[in-house]
Each structure stands twice: as structure tokens, then as C-alpha cells.
């Protein structure tokens, strides 16, 4: 396994409040098949060179993931 395959935790709370709220509100839940249901308990991490924000869907409680693209950085 290369070092790129390892997950590196990041500090979600280091983002400004407006950006945090956007990530928490603008979600897609694969289980609910709906957008913008929101998430709670966010975790941010770097995996294979990509930043993810993972949390729990406010509606159904399943895990939701947001993958940050270069445009969002």
C-alpha cells in the first residue's frame, strides 16, 4: 500500500462558518435519493489525493459523502 492510499484526517471546523454550513446543507443521499436533506456529524479527510466530507443524513441516518473537486478548493 502506498502512502496515497492512506486516509488523513482533516479539521472540518477550520473552514469558515459559511463554507461549513454549505457542506452541511447541500448534500445528496444515495439512500433517500434526494438532494439537500442535510448532514450532521461531519468528518473531513484526504484519501488518495481527494478531500471528502462524510456525515450522517438528517433524514434517514445513512452515511453521505461529498467529494471536493478542484473547482471547490
Please tag this protein with its features:
about 70 residues; mainly beta; 4-stranded antiparallel beta sheet; two-stranded antiparallel ribbon; 6 strands
3D architecture notes:
- This protein is mostly beta strands.
- It contains one helix and six strands, in the order βαβββββ.
- It has one helix at 17-25, and strands spanning 8-10, 28-29, 34-35, 39-47, 50-57, 63-68.
- The strands form two sheets. A four-stranded antiparallel β-sheet has the order 1-4-5-6, with helices on one face. A two-stranded antiparallel sheet has the order 2-3.
- Strand 5 and strand 6 (63-68) form a beta hairpin.
- The radius of gyration is 13 Å and the shape is globular.
- The termini are far apart.
Topology of this structure?
Blueprint: E1 8-10, H1 17-25, E2 28-29, E3 34-35, E4 39-47, E5 50-57, E6 63-68
Antiparallel strand pairs: 1-4, 2-3, 4-5, 5-6
Give the structure's gist in a few sentences.
12% of the residues lie in helices and 41% in strands.
- What radius of gyration results from the CA coordinates? 13 Å
Tally of extended strands?
6
- The total of helices stands at 1
Strand content: 35-45%
What is the arithmetic mean of pLDDT?
A: 90
Amino acid at each position: 500500500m502506498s502512502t496515497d492510499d492512506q486516509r488523513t484526517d482533516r479539521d472540518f471546523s477550520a473552514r469558515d462558518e459559511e463554507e461549513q454550513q454549505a457542506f452541511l446543507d447541500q448534500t445528496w443521499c444515495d439512500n433517500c435519493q434526494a438532494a439537500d436533506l442535510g448532514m450532521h456529524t461531519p468528518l473531513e479527510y484526504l484519501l488518495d489525493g481527494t478531500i471528502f466530507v462524510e456525515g450522517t443524513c438528517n433524514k434517514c441516518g445513512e452515511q453521505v459523502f461529498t467529494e471536493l473537486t478542484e473547482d471547490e478548493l
